[in-house]
User: Fold this.
Amino acid sequence: MDETWLTTLITDTPQQGFELAITLSRRGVKYTQPDPEVLHKLRPIYANNPDSLTAASQVVAINFQTVAAANNYWRK
Amino acid sequence: MDETWLTTLITDTPQQGFELAITLSRRGVKYTQPDPEVLHKLRPIYANNPDSLTAASQVVAINFQTVAAANNYWRK
Amino acid sequence: MDETWLTTLITDTPQQGFELAITLSRRGVKYTQPDPEVLHKLRPIYANNPDSLTAASQVVAINFQTVAAANNYWRK
Amino acid sequence: MDETWLTTLITDTPQQGFELAITLSRRGVKYTQPDPEVLHKLRPIYANNPDSLTAASQVVAINFQTVAAANNYWRK
Amino acid sequence: MDETWLTTLITDTPQQGFELAITLSRRGVKYTQPDPEVLHKLRPIYANNPDSLTAASQVVAINFQTVAAANNYWRK
Amino acid sequence: MDETWLTTLITDTPQQGFELAITLSRRGVKYTQPDPEVLHKLRPIYANNPDSLTAASQVVAINFQTVAAANNYWRK
Assistant:
């Protein structure tokens, strides 16, 4: 991928960190399936399957561990 | 998502931390499937499937690792 | 949940820590399916399925990581 | 469980630590299904299923992370 | 494998670290299935299955935890 | 198992560490299914199933986290 999409793991707030975790999770998918049309077609399938949604949330949770550690958990 | 829902990972007690882990797990789902009616319709499906419940508990466990570390495990 | 069920992650022994990890894993299920009758009905299903048992053991392992770190691994 | 089976996470060697990780993984199963006869009956099912074996190895890997950290990775 | 393919976990940027995590995930597959023709044949199967894509993204997330820690999260 | 197969987690290079992670993953399987003939028979099944390959890569990733931490990420 030539595009620059990730320059830092540091965010201002935990919520921005959680949203970065979502970005990382989606990018992990995109490196395997780069075609946006295919991804668009697959979305309604897993977005209506509870086990697929739990699995998606799990990837976000794993990436959020990384982002949260990078930000020292946004401790004041 | 424009709504602010996560301003800190710090909680007073481990139980509140566990409940925050549940919130994070549900938000991870909501970013993929934001429609509350769909989520409501899916609930009875996975809430009666033992493997789905174990999978849900696993996501909570992963998020609880993050929240517990953020709170230095609520050590006195 | 109004009930207080988790006031500390600190335990005297690793075995008590492992048992706390089991409690955390069950609570993760209970927040999704709070009805004890449903949970009771589901138990024989997954308790006789080897893959379900492995999955349950995995959630315990993840929660045990958290409890063990909280207790500094019960190092003397 | 009244029996004492886990008094320390410290082992002399990494291999003993890996074997402790296996014990922890099996105990995680046993708390859900304590009947040794049922466990014995289930064994040939998952011991001949490659995905079940990979899943079992994954639980061991997670528990080994905990044991290895407890032992400071057996660094000299 | 005789080929040298991994000499360091250190990367200049988080994005390069993420791409290294993808490499590690693919190498984990390749050690089990080294035949490039088989891998090529399998690709369209999982690249069009949403649950397979989520599972692939999860392995990347786990490897990214390792690479990010190695790089001290690219903190300035 | 009486055989000594793991005396240290320390390796010279990250690639050797990755290969040790593969050894750990296979040993995790072998403790559950020690019969080499059965393992040999199962191999073509999961080596041609993309989801099985992803699952195998995930166990390697988890074990690599342990080995990499043990080696302080091979930082110079």
Summary: Residues 14-74 of chain E form one domain.
